[in-house]
Write a structure and sequence with these properties.
CATH superfamily of the largest domain: P-loop containing nucleotide triphosphate hydrolases
Order of helices and strands: EEEEEHEEHEHHHEHEHEEHHHEHEEHE
Number of helices: 12
Largest sheet: 6 strands, mixed
Number of strands: 16
Radius of gyration: 26 Å
Number of domains: 2
Strand order of the largest sheet: 8-9-10-5-11-12
Strand content: 25-35%
Structural class: alpha/beta
Distance between the termini: 75 Å
């Protein structure tokens, strides 16, 4: 299938067999020491402070932070809905603060945007909602029909073209929003909390759709969210904002596996499995002196070195029994990440564990004894 633009200077034919060479370096965004200050009745409010980041062409880049961290201000600067107070925003190497009105219209045509609450026109059908930006751009009727039909097929809603938004589910509404954002063949797609109004199952389907669109069209996707699970599912790299400043920036597996900032650890907390209540009730910090016990040990995997979880090797190295108690290991960008709680018999000692974290034979990134649990007394 091929996707087509209108027969105007702004809408040239583009086949989807590969991203064309003249678009290979498109969709790049660079923020240079960006700051944003708002004036309010209470005085000046600093929303962003000295934010610098390069977003590569064709990548999925996540921006995450708690409420008030500056996420929305940052994403709105990329299509110049907001102007920075200081610093520069460059799209494809061009300082967008210098664009005149006509150039700004052209820029926004190259940058699609989808929203948390869909922003569909209730009085227009699915077809008409998707066609709207094409009509504004001056595309001819034949092209509009062809392009909208292509977009309906892309998002899986070909049968819903006559339907009105009130008859759609939340996930279907967001698919229409995605189709509308892609109608003008943008180089960049901005996603403003695009899944936060959706249930978990629908969220997964929308994230899969965005991933597929990224692969098929080579479009740069920049999304903001307050959910680390969204970042884990879709992003290549992520920026963590805290009070308008960069807390962390890097590949997703690295930020998840070894978070350095308190804000990142707080955002990751919902994904971390807590100690089960039944285990917490009998866990003691000090080693029992007059009872048989097992050690409860936390094994942490951060993604570094592509280590894999190998309980059998740990048990063989310790010459002791090892039983999985709680936790889990996930995979992010092909790397093992997570924490396991295991019960290890008392004959194993912490010094015996350290070699497992060192050198070429390392099979875990961090090992910590978090407490002891008494073995049941069956003598009674």
């Amino acid at each position: 299938m091929a996707f087509f633009r209108a027969d105007t200077a702004d809408f040239e034919i583009l086949a989807d067999n590969a991203v064309s060479e003249n678009r290979a370096n498109r969709g790049e965004v660079k923020l240079e020491a960006v700051g944003k200050i708002y004036e309010s009745s209470a005085g000046k409010v600093k929303a962003l402070d000295n934010v610098s980041v390069d977003i590569k062409s064709g990548e999925i880049f996540g921006i995450i932070g708690r409420s008030g961290a500056g996420k929305s201000s940052l994403i709105r600067m990329i299509n110049r809905l907001e102007k920075p107070t200081s610093g520069r925003v460059l799209v494809n190497g061009e300082d967008i603060a210098l664009l005149n009105e006509k150039e700004l219209v052209a820029l926004r045509r190259r940058i699609g945007m989808i929203f948390q609450h869909f922003n569909l026109l209730s009085a227009k059908s699915v077809f008409e909602n998707i066609a709207l930006p094409l009509k504004v751009a001056g595309a001819n009727r034949a092209h509009i029909k062809s392009r909208v039909n292509d977009m309906l097929e892309l998002v899986g809603l070909s049968e819903k073209y006559k339907t009105y938004p009130s008859r759609l589910s939340g996930g279907q509404k967001q698919r229409v929003g995605i189709a509308r954002a892609l109608a003008t063949q943008p180089e960049i797609l901005l996603c403003d909390e695009a899944t936060s109004a959706l249930d978990p199952e629908t969220t997964r389907s929308i994230l899969q759709l965005l991933r597929d669109i990224n692969k098929k069209l080579g479009i740069t996707i920049i999304l903001i969210t307050h959910e680390m699970s969204v970042i884990r599912e879709i992003a290549d790299r992520t920026l963590v904002l805290e009070k308008g400043e960069i807390a962390e920036l890097g590949e997703v597996w690295r930020v998840f596996g070894a978070p350095h900032h308190e804000a990142t650890r707080a955002l990751l907390a919902p994904l971390r499995q807590s100690l089960p209540e039944d285990l917490a009730a009998i866990l003691v910090k000090e080693k029992p002196e007059h009872a048989d016990y097992n050690q409860i040990v936390a094994l942490k995997y951060t993604g570094e070195g592509a280590l894999e979880c190998d309980l059998a090797r740990i048990a063989n190295s310790l010459h002791a029994s090892v039983q999985l108690v709680h936790g889990g290991v996930d995979r992010i960008q092909g790397r093992a990440f997570g924490r396991l709680l295991v019960s290890i018999s008392s004959e194993a000692r912490l010094p015996d564990l350290k070699p497992l974290m060192q050198g070429d034979d390392a099979i875990v990134h961090n090992i910590e004894v978090i407490g002891y649990v008494p073995l049941p007394d069956y003598s009674i």
